[in-house]
Task: inverse folding
């Protein structure tokens, strides 16, 4: 079993391998019987915002759905994702041999037998008003929790009834054994930044946002969830959205807006601490904190290493230094000197980090997925396929 785990780590073609080799030794000496065991997650329940939305917003608000070229790289059609292809949550599902997650909000063709996705683009942890052009979604984390609270007994009822719908619902035991994944918080910061809050005010709201986050996680635990995989928030100050709206903000040595990333870091430090407390409160849960910030930031610090170029420039956007505009988004059309200009894809999204100014390309998502799933960026340092509760 240990062999299996160590072999697996060799798949990752990066310098993390040495760190992982250490991890093999550490886990072996800890508890060889359990430490080497892969988790057999039968389902995934995901909560979050656009970074993990597989079509929830599109189903609810057709006017806001991502249009082509979104989806072109992998799905060859818009697939409810703000991306040219797959999201990190898609790579996770594939790694467990599970189907892509159906959005809870989609009443057409949804198959929840292996989980459900409650994430919705524009979602915040605390319900927020829109900030100018930046729209938020009404499906806050608290509402996503309520949807899950409804989902669980209804799924049981529908399975019990038999008929065509029964097989589209998860089995009862899947709820305890599933992986519960989270990627949310960035929009809480964005709303503050693009609204009229100062950086200090946004930063001061962070402890409240994080405490709301962990309260919701606890509520989901109380419904039977035991294995949690929780992403921290990415380097928001590296996104064309922030770089364009705050042109004069001081940049760091990798071209990112420093103060904005500091607030993201403050969110992450708060979250990491809060999850450490939660781990003590809920000893029967496996709670994994995932430092997705560091992995995403490395794409801006060292793009060539991963085969990327122009990391701060949107592939599918319009105008300015960062190919980003507040008034027209990817797949939209804008009028310039009486001519209609379609906002399409750059030529090679596979060598680009940022898709539309806010979201990452499929290529970047794949790199991020590979790195976070290895266990080198998680607390505790456990790979994705071992991040389950030990019985
Ligand atoms: C629902 O998904 C499961 C798991 O992928 C699959 O085996 C099953 O055939 C699907 N059901 C339908 C009706 O598509
Ligand atoms: C989170 O904040 C919202 C306000 O946006 C509040 O209604 C909700 O009760 C809070 N949830 C938790 C679990 O603290
Ligand atoms: C910020 O304040 C300005 C001036 O008071 C106002 O015009 C603008 O609508 C405000 N923006 C937001 C997002 O509240
Ligand atoms: C943000 O707030 C934290 C306290 O939660 C403080 O330690 C940190 O210095 C603040 N950072 C900024 C950039 O204001
Ligand atoms: C900017 O976006 C346009 C679509 O509006 C795209 O054609 C172009 O290639 C992008 N520019 C860069 C440098 O990626």
Result:
């Amino acid at each position: 079993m240990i062999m299996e785990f160590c072999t697996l780590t060799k798949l990752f073609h990066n310098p993390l391998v040495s760190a992982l080799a250490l991890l093999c030794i550490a886990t072996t000496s800890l508890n060889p019987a359990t430490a080497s065991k892969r988790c057999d997650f039968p389902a995934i329940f995901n909560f979050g915002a656009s970074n993990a939305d597989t079509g929830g917003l599109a189903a609810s608000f057709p006017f806001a759905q991502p249009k082509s070229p979104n989806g072109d790289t992998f799905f060859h059609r818009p697939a409810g994702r703000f991306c040219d292809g797959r999201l990190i949550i898609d790579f996770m599902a594939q790694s467990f041999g599970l189907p892509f997650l159906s959005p809870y909000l989609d009443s057409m063709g949804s198959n929840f037998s292996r989980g459900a996705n409650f994430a919705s683009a524009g979602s915040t942890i605390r319900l927020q008003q829109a900030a100018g052009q930046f729209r938020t979604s009404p499906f806050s984390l608290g509402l996503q929790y309520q949807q899950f609270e409804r989902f669980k007994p209804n799924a049981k009822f529908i399975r019990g009834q038999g008929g065509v719908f029964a097989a589209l619902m998860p089995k009862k035991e899947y709820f305890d054994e599933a992986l519960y994944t989270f990627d949310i918080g960035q929009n809480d910061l964005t709303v503050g930044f693009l609204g009229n809050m100062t950086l200090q005010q946004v930063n001061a709201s962070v402890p409240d946002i994080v405490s709301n986050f962990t309260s919701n996680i606890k509520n989901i635990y109380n419904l039977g969830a035991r294995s949690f995989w929780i992403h921290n928030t990415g380097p928001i100050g590296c996104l064309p959205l922030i770089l364009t709206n705050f042109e004069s903000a001081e940049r760091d040595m990798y071209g990112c807006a420093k103060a904005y990333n500091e607030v993201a870091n403050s969110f992450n430090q708060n979250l990491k601490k809060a999850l450490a407390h939660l781990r003590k409160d809920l000893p029967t849960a496996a709670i994994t904190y995932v430092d997705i910030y560091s992995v995403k930031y490395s794409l801006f610090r060292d793009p060539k290493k991963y085969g990327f170029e122009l990391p701060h420039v949107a592939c599918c956007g319009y105008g300015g230094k960062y190919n980003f505009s507040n008034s027209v988004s990817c797949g939209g059309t804008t009028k310039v000197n009486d001519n209609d200009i379609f906002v399409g894809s750059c030529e090679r999204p596979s060598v680009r980090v940022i898709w539309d100014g806010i979201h990452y390309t499929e290529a970047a998502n794949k790199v991020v997925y590979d790195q976070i799933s290895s266990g080198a960026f998680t607390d505790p340092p456990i790979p994705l396929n071992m991040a389950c509760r030990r019985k």
Residues 1-34 have pLDDT under 50 and may be disordered. Residues 199-222 form the longest helix (24 residues).
